[in-house]
Design goal:
Helices cover about 25% and strands about 45% of the residues. The chain is α+β, with helices and mostly antiparallel strands and about 100 residues long. The chain has one domain: Thrombin, subunit H (Beta Barrel), CATH 2.40.10.
Length: about 100
């Protein structure tokens, strides 16, 4: 069993459901976007414009998400501003998206 299949099973089993653009169902793990990661992803001008709390979602590498897509969660609509594809040995493992 490969690392990728283990990650995909973990997300499918324990991930939180969310909708992309109100239609596409995906699963992922959400967390608050802390200041350290915020400074890694955004410059100071972008950080000043962020409404807090911003979130990160860690989702499968084949999730159909793109920059400027919307994600509804807990009664609030977030916009995807950055997406980072985390790789292992050249293979995409997960996508990490910054939601503001």
């Amino acid at each position: 069993m490969s690392i990728l299949s283990r990650i995909d099973r973990l997300i499918a089993k324990h991930g939180e459901d969310y909708l992309v653009n109100g239609t596409t169902a995906e699963k992922g793990f959400f967390r608050v976007l802390d200041s350290g990661r915020m400074h890694t992803l955004f410059d100071d001008t972008e950080i000043a414009a962020i409404t807090r709390p911003a979130l990160l979602v860690i989702t499968s590498s084949d999730a159909s998400i793109a920059i400027n897509d919307t994600v509804a969660r807990d009664g609030r609509t977030y916009t995807i501003k950055k997406i980072v594809v985390e790789r292992f040995g050249g293979t995409a493992m997960v996508k990490v998206a910054a939601l503001v």
